[in-house]
Fold these 2 entries.
Entry 1:
Amino acid sequence: MRRRITNWVMTGLCGLALLVALVPLGSLLWLVISHGLAGLSPDFFTAVPAPVGETGGGVGNAIVGTLYIVAIACAVGVPLGVGAGVYLAERGDTRLGDAVRFTAEVLSGVPSIVVGIVAYGLVVLSMRRFSALAGGMALAVLMVPTLARSTEELVRLVPGTLREASLALGVSQWRTSLMVVLRTALGGIMTAILLAVARAAGETAPLLFTSLNNQYWNWRADQPTASLTVQIFNYAVAPYQDWHDKAWSAALVLLLLVGALSLAGRLASRSRLR
Amino acid sequence: MTSAVALVLAVPVSLGLALFLTEMAPPALRSIVSFPISLLAGIPSVVYGLWGLFVLVPLLRNPVEPFLARTLGFLPLFQGAPIGLGYLAAGVVLAIMILPTITSIAIEVLQTVPGSLREAALALGATRWEAICTAVLPYSRAGIVGATMLGLGRALGETMAVTMVIGNSPTIRASLFAPGYSLPAVIANEFAEASGDLHTGALAALGLLLFAVTVLLNVVARLLVRLSRRGPARVAA
């Protein structure tokens, strides 16, 4: 009897763990949506932030800035990550391949703020100013390891017969990799890219001292640039109620952006599987 | 310090969750629940910080911390003014953030436990909980430790959420209620305004320290998880 009661109690506790895990999630989503919706207006998406002390204004430049920085990160990170992944899958069964794989694994566990310091040292110091380029570089470094690992796994799934058929037709190795193998795995790789982009768009720490912030519209890669995440941070720690409301709305926009990206990623792989 | 609080809170919950999902829950529930858990992992950290600052901190300041101080006030851990911002808030936010990491890896590890082991224990008349205690957990011990260490690695490096709720005060106190500082928070707050090479250098050195610690943790954790995936024979000793 005592044993049975223990069994029940422990099962109950484990079920309780589930509830405990879901409560913060529910609370977070609910608050972001309920607080955030109130502040959404056309102005919010198109205007630049209002000066301190004035109400109104928006985060249009931050939304554009985030997209801008993430685009730079993609331009740098995607070719590198996918290329490394293809290499690992096609030619990676060597000592070097193992080393690269392990490095990528460890690199993906490095705190993003450390990556920010690296980007500061490499880009900001040499350019002598904070810039969107530096932020994009930092995010690119964050994207590469995860992208390389998932590309490798996806490329390995491509049947060997496809590869052999292509080689047997006299197609050179590099064209086989590019035209046949990569193409077959493309759906999955798109998913991996979208998920990596979603992660990058949500990063704050590496942007704090690389792309910094900007109160105005900016279209130049060598200038400080606003981003949604840094803007949320600044608004949240400031002592103004109006800014707090803006922070919630910006958080809602960010969540929608990140959610849409990862949803698109999941759909891309699902349609491919069928 | 904050990471320790986070681990104390997160490990039992995520382990319970992983056990519940792999051993007890019907498969249908499992696929329903795995979605919100992955959602939890995908939320940007600055949004967690926002939530922590405006929801958790007031909650801690009013009912939770005075209650802890009244009931457990004889411990130095629970003394001091309940201002909300501080180690405890940072620990709780971190716990929520590393929960999905630990849970998903623990689930992965638990799924490698052969069904025959479980069935053998059940056939000997063990209840389901006893089967978990005697057969499942010992088998997957190394992997679970590895999962915990990966969670710790994430907690140590987490910047934004902690910066927003820890209170940012360069002091060391025993109380969980006191504001403090963490490595990434110092870097986040001071780097952009660092004046002179010395200040920047010092902050970069903090970054190096953080980097070294997390790399070490990650290497060990990955090896542990990899070992336990291969089987328990070598790990059991």
Entry 2:
Amino acid sequence: MTPDTSDPVVANAAVAAATRSDETQLSAGEAAFEQCSGCHEVGQGAEHRIGPHLNGLFGRIAASHEDFRYSEAFQRAGRGGLEWHADTLDAFLADPRSMTSGTRMSFPGITDKTEREHLIAYLRLFSDNPADIPEADPTKQATDHDLDPAILALVGDPEYGEYLSGECTTCHQVSGGDTGIPSIVLWPDEDFVIAMHAYKQKTRNHPVMQMVAGRLGDEEIAALAAYFGQLEEE
Amino acid sequence: MKLNRRAFISTTAAVAGSLAAPMVMAQGRPRVVVVGGGAGGATAARYIAKDSKGEVDVTLIEPTRTYYTCFFSNLYLGGFKEIDDIGHTYGGLAANGVNVVHDWAVGVDRDAKTVALAGGGSVAYDKLILSPGIDFVEGAVEGWDMSAQNAMPHAYKAGSQSELLRAQLQAMPEGGTFAMVAPPNPYRCPPGPYERVSMVAHWLKLNNPTAKILVADPKPKFSKMALFQEGWNNHYAGMVDWVGEDFGGGEVSVDPAAMTVTIDGEVTNVDVCNVIPAMKAGRIADLAGVTDGNWAPVNAADMSTKADPDIYVLGDASQQGDMPKSGFSANSQAKVCANAVRGALTGSKVFPAKFSNTCWSLIETNDGVKVGATYEATDEKIAKVDGFISQTGESADIRKATYEESEGWYTGITTDMFG
């Protein structure tokens, strides 16, 4: 059903076939991945961000990266034997919440089947044989910013963050629930800080968040990142 | 105020003489008593108990076992929610270590630092937090008093009043008239009456499309006015007749027996009349002697009252400055207050006050709007820093996202309040 991805010959052939047969599909898949790249990296040097990196995804059991803190929903799915292949990815991407209710992935899904196919074909590239991943393009970095490194280097005080978090938890749930309002728990500090500064600079678009972030200082944003980053799921 | 306190002392003396009053007291730990289990009180009780990790003894006094949120009660009226969807119980607070006492607080002895309970006995406090919400000003609407609340419901404290108003709305004759008497400023939930008009219109449009809505308003303008009026024109053309101050909306009287509303001398027969009178702080704030006029003036930095540094007033009952009276505001103030009270009692770190508020309103299915602001504490008051409001003519996608956001907020704030 699925090619043996541990066999480089099969894997290379798959990549070659994919490249030959449908480069359009892959570039459409790459475009579709823009929706994911806010939280996920894939390709050379990809790391876990708000979501886990997506290299080597095919054939992997869900929630199996030991160095990523998954939602309870995904851990349950993994224990239940969910394995990522074209068919399971297709079902998941069509409606993430119906497959893993309680996921922190704030994404409504992709309704267009062709778009899902393109995206899955694109992700497939980084699973067949990571060694073949090109040096530069098409690696996707989750975060694109011009924030002062000194701001990113600030180490926040989680106790202050806990106090400040009261302003967030009126809307955002500490449990990580994300119906209507996105989850903000367990993000890497850096992503949290970048997102909040983007709201503050009004380059990220949401009136409530622009207002809330607008009056937070650098230290306060770092404190919030430190607090929400270390929360355990309830 | 003195009279009230004396009256209370004589009451407790009588109680003490008749039976051994149970004292709800913990040994050694500092004691916080919170009166009122809504957005202000439940949040304050939960945060102090949770953050002090047992160092502070927290008692919440709330008469009802199931609390119905005023926010989203208009959505219940419109048929978007059922009553159970807006009901919450106190098990989560008890699990957080809060002693929940279901009783009425009927007096405060500021010298002895005790709160008297209607069921007898009293509770001692080191710090007292009052979050009693609102009561109505007597004689505010000519012809209406609390004895008329079944004929002409206010439905401005959620629960049985909301159920009554919904039943009356649904029993309206075809082509009948739903009247509302809107309140003067300041009052709980500034967009609330107009969201209610929208929700009533939504229900009527589906079930009784020739019915009319008549609003008598003592104000010349109201919260999110342009947004509501745009929505009423778009969704409910010709249904809503809003009579503002300029057209005699403040010159209003009602006759609950005859079911008439008289606006600026013109008598109208109505089928339902929702009277939302002028408001004041919940009665316990008055009994505690911390009000000045209708509301309880507080210090912006920690919500302590101007009258007594050991008594704090949160939410609608407080007079704090620029924040609107809303559940979101009360929740925000509660967290500032909880941090300050815990600091005062245990020496924990007290951080500077920060407040915020957002009010979402639903105009029609998937047509949500919002208004919000951030605030800071100054020596004088809670002062507005920055704000925003939804724009007229926004796309349907934005309005739908705004509505979905309000659903998310409801889950968020009720979790924040009740655990």
